[in-house]
Design a protein that fits this description.
heterodimer; A: about 300 residues; mainly alpha; MetI-like fold; elongated; B: mainly alpha; membrane (chain B); transport (chain B); transmembrane (chain B); BPD_transp_1_N (chain B); MetI-like (chain B)
């Protein structure tokens, strides 16, 4: 879904720092980075990552088998998010779902980052017809609305969470390509690049020793922004039923399964949705702060 | 040939090229890569078709032809408005789409209008709201809106407005009543990028010296809002038109699924669930045409709206450069913008950034 593109940046928005950011640049970078907002966001994300790594620390309930627990219990001290239609603990499902959703988001961002940056760096540093052809490919990727592009890829690759992640990653390629291209173009004009060439550097040595290290901070900031968007897109595809199969705890699927009970058991959808939202807002917040710091 | 005419022609050419390449990509993925989708579907023993019948069906879908013939035939077919036949139901894809289009068009239009209204309300409250803490809270609303999973939003809206408050009937609603909740679901995420751009534009313009002068001369806040802000916010708002279109497409798929409405969105979701590649191909191509058209229109509108862009040599490039500065701030909203024309203009030199666009346009409109 293209909510996501919202989080992204392209060359136009990153080639120049926003006028406002300039004023604050006298304060040290760390002080501007650690605002209450980013601290809360970091804590939230940190908790989610620990959920994903060690779900057993946070919940003793089984996410897939409810046992003989009563169905549709309202939230309580025993079951924080209540139980679903077959007695599974919803909080436990969300905690266990974190690993799948975060891993999928990382795969998606990884695909976009690696393929996109490779395209962008080569296009930006080589120019000429190579750059022209590469950026045309990016244009074509951008011209298909993101959700439809990912659906097209899902239909080709088949359903499943990894395929969904790859599909979402392919929709992110264009943004990484544009950003890294603009970075590469700027860097290639710098004096030290001329100096490197002058002292006998080859194209590849300049690319690896100067262009990549200098472009990396901006690209990584975009990657953090993209994690939130990827989580949103992946959960959307999971909700539509193209991701993980049924008993798997995956955030989109958990919400999809709860929707038949909106009238009687609000906690099945509302609480998992709030968690997804909190995680997405946090990555957004951190990504934006990182991008300002990178500039 | 006048420069304007040449600009229009070159933009048209780029749009057609991108459309053609996008069609090729989608056709490659959906028609040619899957190999023999027809065989996979109809050779299923449960259907009880004889080998001859399967051969007939294959023949009717043209599945025996080599891939470049299939590609060529579908390209010609698409140009003539013939999108082939659904693998799932056997109906002509064009019929399916014609049946689904009106409902989605109405929903999209309502959602779009509601999003604009919502964005303007949020902007006014965030910029002029009292007390200030309330304005601050509303100021952060757009960032929240973009982070909401749309499918979840739809469910929560049904839950609150329909089941808790009983305002809208979702079980057996009338035609208009059935539109209210989907419109709201579609409008909320759609309004977010728009509100962000508008809030930013208002903030930019209000700090300009010509606004202080106008205010000192006795202009009311309302007059300033209409005359300065709207004029200066139009261009940045236009740049996210492509982004909004993408949101609208994605929103329609999710909203129609959540609310069980028939339309292009639910047709898309069904096509993917049933692996109905011809239907998905047609939808992808139609949506891409819409997307490219929106971006083309926006690109052609820039010089009309901003006179400065008319007098420069390369209109497209200066438009891009201008936008590069103007969209720098609102959290990188320009992701999908200008999809079809980026190759040339997307990199603005760093040196051009010392002056924000707000300042530029403000100075010019005041002079």
């Amino acid at each position: 879904m293209s909510t996501v593109e919202f989080a992204g940046a392209d060359s136009r928005s990153t080639a120049q720092p926003p006028a406002r950011g300039r004023k604050g640049s006298r304060r040290s970078a760390t002080r501007t980075f650690f605002t209450p907002g980013t601290i809360i966001a970091s804590v939230l994300l940190g908790v989610t990552i620990i959920w994903a790594l060690f779900p057993g620390l946070f919940t003793g309930h089984d996410p897939v088998d409810g046992g003989d627990t009563a169905a549709l219990l309202a939230p309580s001290a025993e079951h924080w998010f209540g139980t679903d239609q077959i007695g599974r603990d919803v909080y436990s499902r969300v905690v266990h779902g974190a690993s799948r959703s975060l891993l999928a988001a990382l795969i998606a961002v990884g695909v976009g980052l690696i393929v996109g940056s490779a395209i962008g760096l080569i296009a930006g540093s080589r120019g000429g017809w190579v750059g022209e052809v590469l950026m045309r490919i990016v244009d074509v990727l951008l011209s298909i609305p993101a959700l439809l592009l990912s659906l097209t890829i899902v239909i080709v690759l088949g359903f499943g969470i990894v395929n969904v992640a790859i599909a979402v990653g392919i929709t992110a390629i264009a943004q990484f390509a544009r950003l890294s291209r603009s970075q590469a173009v700027t860097i290639m004009q710098a004096d030290y690049v001329q100096a490197a060439y002058g002292s006998g550097g080859t194209y590849w040595s300049v690319l690896l020793r100067h262009v990549v290290p200098n472009a990396v901070s901006a690209v990584l900031a975009l990657a953090v922004l993209q994690v939130g968007s990827a989580i949103l897109q992946i959960s959307t595809l999971g909700f539509l039923g193209y991701g993980a199969p049924a008993p798997t705890p995956e955030w989109g699927l958990i919400i999809a399964e709860g929707r038949n009970f909106v009238a009687t058991a609000w906690w099945l959808t509302v609480l998992p949705g709030l968690i997804v939202m909190a995680v997405v807002v946090s990555t957004h917040r951190l990504g934006t702060a990182l991008r300002k710091a990178a500039e | 040939m006048s420069p304007t005419f040449r600009y229009i022609l070159s933009r048209l050419g780029q749009a057609v090229l991108v459309l053609f390449l996008a069609f090729t990509l989608a056709a490659l993925l959906l028609m040619i890569l899957p190999g023999d989708g027809v065989l996979a579907r109809f050779a299923n023993p449960a259907l009880g078709l004889s080998a001859d019948q399967v051969a007939d069906i294959r023949d009717s879908y043209g599945a025996d032809a080599p891939w470049f013939i299939q590609y060529w035939q579908s390209l010609v077919g698409f140009l003539q408005g013939d999108f082939g036949y659904s693998v799932n139901s056997g109906a002509a894809v064009s019929t399916l789409i014609a049946a689904a289009l009106p409902s989605t068009a109405v929903l999209a239009l309502c959602g779009f209008v509601a999003a604009i209204v919502l964005a303007v309300i949020v902007t006014v409250l965030a910029s002029y709201g009292k007390p200030p803490w309330l304005a601050n809270v509303i100021d952060s609303a757009p960032a929240l809106f973009v982070s909401v999973p749309v499918f979840w939003l739809g469910i929560v809206i049904i839950q609150v407005l329909s089941f808790q408050l009983g305002w809208v009937n979702v079980v057996d609603p009338g035609a208009v009543e059935a539109l209210i909740l989907p419109t709201l679901t579609l409008a909320i995420p759609l309004s977010a990028p728009l509100a962000q751009v508008l809030i930013r534009a208002v903030a930019d313009v209000r700090t300009e010296s010509f606004v202080h002068v106008s205010r000192a001369k006795g202009a009311s806040e309302g007059w300033l809002l209409v005359n300065a802000v709207i004029r200066n916010a139009t261009l940045p708002a236009l740049t996210i038109a492509g982004l909004l279109f993408g949101e609208l497409v994605a929103g329609a798929v999710v909203t129609e699924t959540v609310f069980g409405r028939n339309g292009l969105g639910s047709l898309t979701a069904q096509a993917v669930a049933n692996r109905d590649n011809p239907v998905l191909l047609a939808i992808v191509v139609i949506a891409t045409i819409g997307f490219v058209l929106v971006n083309l229109i926006v690109d052609l509108l820039y010089p009309l709206i901003d006179p400065r862009l008319r007098h420069r040599g390369r209109v497209g490039k200066s438009a891009r450069k201008h936008l590069a500065t103007s969209t720098a701030a609102p959290a990188g909203t320009s992701g999908a913008v200008g999809a079809s024309s980026s190759a040339h203009g997307s990199v603005a030199p760093r040196t051009s950034t010392t002056q924000g666009p707000g300042t530029q346009s403000a100075e010019e409109s005041s002079s």
